[in-house]
């Protein structure tokens, strides 16, 4: 099965103040689709755990022309673009009502050894290469996020119990929420997150005290660096906000 499609309906409980699917929930849907496809291919959590490993998201880029609206049925289709012993590149297409394409996403996944927390060798699932699809993804690949200069603001955040996932580190969705909260509600009323990028460099664990530092560029591009106690970057995010039409 080189592709898998998940279909969902946005409920009132799952929408934001603009009555749309919020960015962090789209990221959750992307992870759910990736997990479901990996399970179908026989290289999901259970298979990797036999080697003491687990999949983790390394980088993600999303581009949307709009977000699903409350009550709307939408779907995510995912496929593997590339695979080697070090990482897997996985893409997504997001469609809305009537099957109209409203967005795409690109992601890079690596495996870590649960005990050492170090990158794992994926040679034991080399047959995953047979599942690579020739389907293209039209958005730009994830770029290298490098932020220089002074931040507009930095806010402390302590990683709590509800922030931790099964890999016992800060969930991807919480990183996204921390970045999304760096701008006010008026920004989301006027604009929407048209392109989002996130890159992880270091794990954040329970009890860690972080600094969420942000800077707005040209009034529409938000750069966010989530830093650990030693002031090194744990995660970098960029959100480009486009005007609503």
Question: How is this structure best described in words?
Answer:
Helix content is 16%, strand content 38%. By secondary structure, the chain is α+β, with helices and mostly antiparallel strands. A hairpin with a 4-residue loop joins β3 and β4. α1 packs antiparallel against α3. The longest helix is centred in the first third of the chain and has 19 residues. The protein is globular.
Mean residue pLDDT: 93
Q: How do the strands of the widest beta sheet line up side by side?
A: 1-3-4-5-2-7-10-9-8-6
Rg from alpha-carbon coordinates: 18 Å
Distance between the termini: 38 Å
Helix percent band:
10-25%
The H-and-E topology, N to C, reads as EHHEEEEEHHEEEE
Count helical runs: 4
Extract low-pLDDT stretches: none
Shape: globular
Largest sheet: 10 strands, antiparallel
> How many E strands?
10
Estimate the strand proportion.
35-45%
User: Structural class, from secondary structure content?
Assistant: alpha+beta
Name the features.
ten-stranded antiparallel beta sheet
Write the layout of secondary structure elements.
Elements: E1 3-9, H1 23-41, H2 45-49, E2 53-64, E3 73-83, E4 88-95, E5 101-113, E6 153-158, H3 172-180, H4 185-190, E7 191-200, E8 209-217, E9 221-227, E10 233-243
Antiparallel strand pairs: 1-3, 2-5, 2-7, 3-4, 4-5, 6-8, 7-10, 8-9, 9-10
Helix pairs in contact: 1-3
């Amino acid at each position: 099965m080189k592709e898998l499609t998940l279909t969902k309906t946005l409920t009132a409980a799952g929408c934001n103040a603009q009555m749309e699917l919020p960015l962090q929930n789209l990221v959750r849907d992307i992870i759910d689709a990736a997990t479901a496809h990996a399970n179908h291919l026989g290289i999901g959590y259970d298979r990797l755990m036999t080697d003491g490993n687990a999949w983790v998201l390394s980088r993600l880029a999303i581009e949307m022309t709009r977000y699903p609206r409350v009550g709307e049925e939408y779907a995510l289709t995912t496929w593997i673009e590339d695979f080697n012993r070090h990482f897997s590149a996985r893409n997504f297409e997001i469609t809305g009502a009537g099957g109209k394409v409203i967005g795409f996403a690109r992601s890079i996944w690596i495996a870590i050894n649960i005990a050492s927390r170090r990158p794992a060798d994926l040679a034991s699932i080399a047959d995953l290469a047979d599942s690579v699809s020739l389907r293209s993804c039209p958005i730009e690949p994830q770029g290298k996020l490098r932020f220089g200069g002074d931040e507009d603001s930095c806010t402390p955040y302590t990683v709590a119990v509800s922030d931790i996932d099964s890999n016992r580190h800060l969930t991807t969705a919480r990183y996204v929420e921390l970045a999304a909260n760096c701008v006010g509600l008026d920004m989301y009323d006027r604009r929407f997150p048209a392109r989002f990028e996130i890159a992880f460099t270091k794990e954040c664990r329970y009890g860690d005290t972080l600094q969420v530092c942000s800077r707005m560029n040209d009034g529409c591009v938000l750069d966010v660096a989530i830093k650990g106690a030693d002031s090194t970057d744990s995660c970098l995010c960029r959100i480009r906000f486009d005007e609503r039409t």
